Amino acid sequence: MSLIEITHLTRTYRMGDIEVHALRGVSMTIEAGEMVAIMGPSGSGKSTLMNLLGCLDQPTTGRYLLDGVDVGKLNDDQLAKIRNTRIGFVFQQYILLQRTSALRNVELPMLYGSGRNRTARARAALEAVGMGNRLHHRPNELSGGQQQRVAIARALVNAPRIILADEPTGALDSATGREIMGIFQRLNAEQGITIILVTHEADVAHYARRIIHVRDGLIDRDEVIEQGSGEPMMPDASGERWAASDE
């Protein structure tokens, strides 16, 4: 059974008397443990597809099975639980609470679920992305790359099966972007987390092992990359954790 299976998915928005067909009948499967890039130009439908995969929106027609469960038959509470426990989200603009420490930002998803060992779990997630020495720093005391690491830790803290990343390097310089993509590669390779990233940049897409090209609301091409590219982050002195740069 595929982790994700979507069949003839469409999404139509109405703007006054005009219908906008963002997706026109998309079908695909994604297996557990894949690292997939969804790539396309602005207006291609890639962000709409990500919103549907993340249960942030509902399709107009079609079916979406997540781990064998028909998402279209779930109620709002069930969808919210999936978003909180099964899927981690990483966005281009970090979306951190500015007056709150990195540790407290990472604890936020646990407020809506199990609160057991909240601080310890948040600390472990931050350490996993090389931010163990920045636990009590606020976002305005962190570089852009460090803020994105906090956002990744927040996505990880409830141990999701899937991470959805929407233009995760879009606000970063090239060197820091490579480090962030190295984190995603490592999470995929070492922890088996399914990574789905949305991007319009070919160099970012090639960190994945599969690229789904979207154009005009349809899948234009689905290609397998023999091996994801990219430069891995450097381990710290212990060799067990990955050190965060200052960007």
Overall description:
The protein is built from 7 helices and 10 strands. The strands form 2 sheets. Strands 6-7-8-3-9-10 form a 6-stranded mixed sheet, sandwiched between helices. It is globular. It has one domain (32-57, 76-224): Rossmann fold (3-Layer(aba) Sandwich), CATH 3.40.50. It has 247 residues and is α/β, with parallel strands linked by helices. Helix content is 28%, strand content 27%.
Task: Please give the structural blueprint.
Layout: E1 4-15, E2 18-30, E3 35-39, H1 46-53, E4 61-66, E5 69-70, H2 76-85, E6 87-90, H3 102-107, H4 118-128, H5 144-156, E7 162-166, H6 174-191, E8 194-199, H7 202-205, E9 210-215, E10 218-224
Parallel strand pairs: 3-8, 3-9, 6-7, 7-8
Antiparallel strand pairs: 1-2, 1-4, 4-5, 9-10
Index terms:
247 residues, alpha/beta, Rossmann fold, six-stranded mixed sheet, 10 strands
